[in-house]
Amino acid sequence: MILQQLFRFSSIFRSAISVHLRRNIGLSAIVFNKAKELDPVQKLFIDKIREYNMKSQKAGGPADVGPEYQKDMAEEIAKIQRLYGGGDLTKFPDFKFEEPNFEESQK
């Protein structure tokens, strides 16, 4: 009887340790991959994203676009202004909500 309880305890203990070890191995694998240098394809992809980001910051908008893009963008903005009643589409709308008066008695 004591031997059965000991085996039962050891199996619970073994399963808890195995879960703990799997989690630690998984975490250490992630940390190890972060510490390693990126593979060449990932490095090239990240370099291109950074290059595009710098170009778009210099251009003040999308990079490497021509006058046709600007014309299409102006047409689409005009269409949206006609559909939704005009206004400035570059700023967030200002909402004004009135506070309800709860002190009024209902008749």
TrEMBL record:
It is found in: Mitochondrion; Mitochondrion inner membrane. GO terms for biological process: proton motive force-driven ATP synthesis. GO terms for molecular function: proton transmembrane transporter activity. Its main location: mitochondrion. Keywords: CF(0), Hydrogen ion transport, Ion transport, Membrane, Mitochondrion, Mitochondrion inner membrane, Transport. GO terms for cellular component: mitochondrial inner membrane; proton-transporting ATP synthase complex. Pfam families: ATP-synt_F6. InterPro entries: ATP_synth_f6_mt (IPR008387), ATP_synth_f6_sf_mt (IPR036204). Component of the ATP synthase complex composed at least of ATP5F1A/subunit alpha, ATP5F1B/subunit beta, ATP5MC1/subunit c (homooctomer), MT-ATP6/subunit a, MT-ATP8/subunit 8, ATP5ME/subunit e, ATP5MF/subunit f, ATP5MG/subunit g, ATP5MK/subunit k, ATP5MJ/subunit j, ATP5F1C/subunit gamma, ATP5F1D/subunit delta, ATP5F1E/subunit epsilon, ATP5PF/subunit F6, ATP5PB/subunit b, ATP5PD/subunit d, ATP5PO/subunit OSCP. Belongs to the eukaryotic ATPase subunit F6 family. Mitochondrial membrane ATP synthase (F(1)F(0) ATP synthase or Complex V) produces ATP from ADP in the presence of a proton gradient across the membrane which is generated by electron transport complexes of the respiratory chain. This is ATP synthase-coupling factor 6, mitochondrial. It comes from Chelonia mydas.
